[in-house]
Amino acid sequence: MRDASPQTTYLKDYTVPDYLIHKVALHFVLDEERTEVTARLTLSRNPASLSMSAALVLAGENLTLQRIILNDGEELVAADYVQAADSLTIYNVPQQQPFVLTIENTINPKINTALEGLYLSNGMLCTQCEAEGFRKITYFLDRPDVMATFTTTLVGDKSRYPVLLSNGNKIAHGELEANRHWVTWEDPFTKPCYLFALVAGQLECIEDHFTTQSGRDISLQIFVEPQDVDKCAHAMQSLQNAMRWDEEVYGCEYDLDLYMIVAVSHFNMGAMENKGLNVFNTKFVLARPDTATDSDYEHIEGVIAHEYFHNWTGNRITCRDWFQLSLKEGFTVFRDQEFTGDRTSKAVKRIEDVTMLRTRQFAEDAGPLAHPIRPEAYIEINNFYTVTIYEKGAEVVRMLHTLLGAERFRKGSDLYFARHDGQAVTCEDFVKAMEAANGVGLVQFRRWYSQAGTPVLTVSRRYDSQAQTLTLSISQECPPTPGQAVKEPLHIPVKVGLIYPDGTIAPCQLQGSADSAEEVILALTEAAQDFVFTGLSSEPAVSVLRGFSAPVKLVMERSLTELAFLLSHDSDTFNRWEAGQQLIGQAITGLIADVQNNRELRLDPIIIEAFRQVLAQPWEDLSYFSLLLSLPSETYLAEQMPVIDVVAIHTAREFVKLTLAEQLQNALQTLYLNNHRDESGCFDAGAIGRRRIKNTCLNYLCALDDPALKNWAHQQFKTAKNMTDQMAALTVMVNNPHYARRQCLAEFYQQWQHEALVIDKWFALQAASPAPDTFATVQALMAHPAFDLGTPNRIRALIGAFSQANPLHFHAANGQGYQFLADQIIALNTLNPQVASRMISALTSWRRYDAGRQALMTAQLERIMSTEAISKDVYEIASKSLA
Ligand code: LYS
């Protein structure tokens, strides 16, 4: 084990930089194993710095320093500077301001398996600098509050690197001897170095344009490897949609004349918003109807939009320090969620986002890694690109939007852009702009930024028939999280609607107020508060937390009958779906107890009746209809249990699925047949909805041991004209006993072996299967020629899917799943620390399991902790998981 634990960085220690860098001229001579970097930096002392020390400390890692030159004069000698593993300290820099420092160093992209800094992806050179990757390119003040203009010259072999890209506009290019050429790029906007990018390789480009609201013509280019040019149309369309939407909704127009996106197959995350040159994981660019599912199409549009939206929320206005990460990510996620909601179905998008929040973020917030959306300390910032920073951060922005309303929120964002354009700012600056633009105070609301944990709202009600009033008593409580034993009450918007027993809307009129509306937003600010509604002629049903108006857990006693009533009558699409989920969730919870106590299983007829009613109604939004028919996931159900019992959850849920399939077989079959078409390349909401409802039915029907229905799946697999249908069919064949399972898996591989993203699906599907032989399959797949520990997408597909999407087998009682995962994390620790540390998450929640599993999981975490040369990334997550 390492003797000194890695250093922690604290928000409270923030100080302004001692030096500023105004201008950066970079010169690269590209080579796979020895790239030469020359950085000419124009610096000056920061007048705002209080430090008296004259030394200039630059960050740098894995760099081979060649020489340092001051003010274009003499080379510095050894006595002038000190080099450490992660820094370069230069003494006695000139008093005259500004001054110029030229640093020459070399780097080796080929051995850079961490995929941070400059690295190789299928022979192409590319960069990833956020958060602290620029220091792996050259020595620099690698912090977001140092903003400079960049000019970049790339020199490379014409055959290997015909395309040479960097940020901004191409200002010059030319030929050199020995089959080489060069290009110079200039980015006129100041930016922190984490937004720097370069790409060099044999790439093909598809091109289009966009005319902005002020009439400027922007050239749009998407660069991919040659075999993928036929999979870019959707990404291009998505970009244009995002550009239009940002103008319409936020008044934000694009600023450069050129917008480039490059898709690379080796990428640690989803995508990166480098100024004018986004670098994307291929997964979020490439799509053709036969290779990508409907949900892939939606994710591509969402991620393209996310990175595009960053141009204002992230690039023009960036973060002062990495503790403010949610300033750009939370806001940008909120923006992309709203965009997708507008483009597809608002109801469905909200439900999907909340589902993800409640399964993943709530789990994070309840575990040893819980942190506020503005954390106070980190060891490795890459570990803080979390669902809390992103998704809970988006919920906090959404609450501001809910509290202020769309118009006033827009006034706030306008002021934020006007005040801070070109600056590196804080979450506090964002809240202040919202306050100032609207003349409101958000003092208590700020606690959302500093407090971790998921608040629990407990709601009870009392109807007084004489007074015709309904009193809602709401209390809030937030469990302790690491480092935060006591929590203060938060400002929570609780959206409420009332429904009379005949299904009509009851007026919401709060005591003492003259306004009456169909719904109200209650401002819960105290630990416990009563809200009295007046003028109610009979007792209404209460629809609380409409649209999931705050990221909280709701505790409210409700009978199955009341839930069934809300499922048919709630006018809020989110709560209507939620009532159904609560209904079925309560039933499954009861069945889980029955499984644990060896009692006979029986599904309450009220559930079957509720589903029958849903099936009997006409639905316009078929995707929403599908969600109403879907069961809560095993992961969601696990979240609701005091001690997670993966076997009982799986057994109970499968029982419910089977029973519903048996009881509703005719209706499900009809629905399947009515929506089964041979549609290819059709991506309107209607076609997407038809596929979704049809495949939901297929999933139920294939739980039945009926050869005719199993054949439906087989036929669908064989005749599918799009990946959604093909994948859905293969999934039910892999997840249920099926005569053609092996054969279809083999055929699928044969058919798609040259499409990496489709093969990822093939790996993930098998790794997530509840079939009894899954663990053996996963082990065998590790040895498959197409498996590769150097490709993050493949790791996520196999190891990630098994550990995060297969609770039943990952948590096998004998601990084999845990040991397997720890083996992979240890292997990845040196290869790719970022990916390794993300894989630990499956072990982090060990306290949620029984004593036997707890012991097995912690033993593996201890084993990970004793890894030789453990990375900061892995150390932080493993040690905090155990703490
Ligand atoms: N800023 C990127 C995004 O759009 C992610 C960068 C990840 C850096 N480790 O989410």
TrEMBL record:
Keywords: Aminopeptidase, Hydrolase, Metal-binding, Metalloprotease, Protease, Zinc. Residues 235-445 form the Peptidase M1 membrane alanine aminopeptidase domain. Residues 562-883 form the Peptidase M1 alanyl aminopeptidase C-terminal domain. GO terms for molecular function: alanyl aminopeptidase activity; metallopeptidase activity; zinc ion binding. Residues 79-195 form the Aminopeptidase N-like N-terminal domain. InterPro entries: Aminopeptidase_N-like_N, Aminopeptidase_N-like_N_sf, PepN_Ig-like_sf, Peptidase_M1, Peptidase_M1_dom, Peptidase_M1_pepN, Peptidase_M1_pepN_C, Peptidase_M1_pepN_C_sf. It catalyses: Release of an N-terminal amino acid, Xaa-|-Yaa- from a peptide, amide or arylamide. Xaa is preferably Ala, but may be most amino acids including Pro (slow action). When a terminal hydrophobic residue is followed by a prolyl residue, the two may be released as an intact Xaa-Pro dipeptide. The keyword DNA-binding does not apply. Its EC number is 3.4.11.2. Its cofactor is Zn(2+). Signal peptide: none annotated. Residues 453-555 form the Peptidase M1 alanyl aminopeptidase Ig-like fold domain. Pfam families: DUF3458, DUF3458_C, Peptidase_M1, Peptidase_M1_N. Belongs to the peptidase M1 family. This is Aminopeptidase N. It comes from Methylovulum psychrotolerans.
